[in-house]
Every structure is written in structure tokens, then in C-alpha cells.
Design goal:
It catalyses: Typically cleaves a -Gly-|-Phe- bond to release an N-terminal, basic peptide of 5-8 residues from type IV prepilin, and then N-methylates the new N-terminal amino group, the methyl donor being S-adenosyl-L-methionine. The protein is mostly helical. Helices cover 70% and strands 0% of the residues. The protein binds zinc ion (ZN). Zinc ion binds next to loops.
Length: 255
């Protein structure tokens, strides 16, 4: 790795933290019909409007030790987690794919997933406007910077993702939300059909493992619906970064 590439990684980490902070705002406000540019964020408990330095990603949370400066109410760790996660994944994207179209596509994927993560955890909702915006962006990227795989793989992925989740939604009678179905269609555009199926498998696996663990330690109540979005995020990211090696490993096992 060259000096310049190290600098780009650091730069992407910082950019990721900053846009991650914006994705928090988008994920929190868009589903309830609020503007994503104005007004500035405020403490949900006392209404204190955050000053410029209180909006600095990660650092402000650490300086304030996770509490509102005025009323000392606890700030949700969701915000710094999304900022840090976006920053780390932006840097990792470049580390793995360097100067290729895949890096760009991955930055878009991480952005989409960050927003979905926030709105799904908060409202159990995946906004259509976010999905539409990213569908347009992904198609544009696919046209401009053709990544390595053939173009039809993206469309096959979209159809596979949508159809699979649609069938499961019908069979499970509402166990899978409409937002999840549409999201998998969009993910298919990025992942291609093989990695879409893998992402779905990994989402279910992590959901079963982590959901089961949460039940055992009494973190969630049985019968209370759990958002599936965070597991989709986990599955899709893993499929993108490790998909190739996982599919290869599986093929060797069955072959
Ligand atoms: Zn407050």
C-alpha cells in the first residue's frame, strides 16, 4: 500500500464519519416526513439545539460522554455507532478494492445500508424514497463504471432478491415486511444473483443466532417484532466483502 493510498483510506474514514452523521439524520427524519436539511438536530428530551461543535461526529459524543450537555439525558449510542461504522466501512472498501468501480459501488451500498439501519431500528420502516434514490444512483453507476461482472448479473440479482423475499413474505404471512422485499431487489442490483442469495442466507443466519441469543439473555421479548434490517445490513456487507471466498468454499464442499 502506497503513502497516497494510506492517505485516501484515512480521508475516506473521516468522510464516512461525517456522511454517517448525515445518514443518521436522514434515517431519523425522512420516515416521519421531516426536512433533512433544517433545522439543526436537538436533544429529544429537553429540546436543546445542538451547537456546531456538538455536531462533530464521534468526537462530540466522546467529549459529552454520551449525554446531553444541558439536561444530561443519555444520547443513543446508535448515532456514534452509525458514524463509526460508516467511516470504517468506507476505509475498508478502498482497502479491498482500491481504484476500481467496485469501491464506488461499495460506498453507495454502505450509504444505503446506514440509512436503512437507522430507520429500521427506529421505526421498523424502510422508506421507499431512499430505495428509489439509491436504485437510480446504482443504475447510473452500473452504466458509467461497469464493474467486472456482466451487466445482466445485476438484473438477475434484483429479480432473484425481490422474488425470493416476496415468496417468503407470502408464505410467512407478514413475517417479512414489504420494505425488506423491496430492499432485497435493490441489493440484488449491487450484489448480483449469487451474492444476493448468499446475503439472504447470512441475514437469516445472523438473525437466528443473534435473535436467539437476545431471547436467551432476555434482551427482547418473545412475540415482539424485531427489525430485520440490521441483519440484512450484516448479511449484505459480509456477502460483498467475503462472498467470493464463501461461494468458493461452499462449491468445494459440495463438489
Ligand atoms: Zn437535553
Amino acid at each position: 500500500m502506497t503513502e497516497v493510498e494510506r492517505l485516501v483510506m484515512l480521508y475516506l474514514f473521516l468522510v464516512g464519519c461525517i456522511v454517517g452523521s448525515f445518514y443518521n439524520v436522514v434515517g431519523l427524519r425522512l420516515p416521519v416526513g421531516e426536512s433533512i436539511v433544517k433545522p439543526r438536530s436537538q436533544c429529544p428530551v429537553c429540546g436543546h439545539r445542538l451547537s456546531a461543535w456538538e455536531l462533530v461526529p464521534l468526537l462530540s459524543y466522546m467529549c459529552l460522554r454520551g449525554r446531553c450537555r444541558v439536561c444530561r439525558a443519555v444520547i443513543s449510542p446508535l448515532y456514534p455507532a452509525v458514524e463509526l461504522g460508516t467511516g470504517l466501512l468506507f476505509a475498508l472498501s478502498f482497502y479491498v478494492y482500491r481504484w476500481t468501480g467496485d469501491t464506488l459501488l461499495l460506498l453507495v451500498l454502505v450509504s444505503l445500508l446506514a440509512i436503512i439501519f437507522v430507520s429500521d431500528v427506529r421505526y421498523m420502516l424502510i422508506p421507499d424514497r431512499v430505495l428509489l434514490f439509491f436504485t437510480a444512483l446504482i443504475l447510473l453507476l452500473r452504466l458509467c463504471f461497469l464493474p467486472s461482472e456482466p451487466w445482466w448479473d445485476a438484473f438477475l440479482g434484483a429479480i432473484a432478491g425481490f422474488a425470493l423475499l416476496y415468496i417468503i413474505a407470502i408464505v410467512s404471512r407478514g413475517g417479512m415486511g414489504g420494505g425488506d422485499v423491496k430492499l432485497f431487489g435493490v441489493l440484488g442490483l449491487i450484489l448480483g444473483w449469487q451474492h444476493t442469495l448468499l446475503a439472504f442466507f447470512l441475514s437469516c443466519l445472523s438473525g437466528a443466532l443473534l435473535g436467539g441469543a437476545a431471547l436467551v439473555i432476555g434482551k427482547v421479548e418473545r412475540r415482539k417484532p424485531v427489525p430485520f434490517g440490521p441483519f440484512i445490513v450484516l448479511g449484505a456487507i459480509t456477502a460483498y466483502f467475503f462472498g467470493e471466498s464463501l461461494v468458493e468454499w461452499y462449491m468445494r464442499r459440495i463438489g
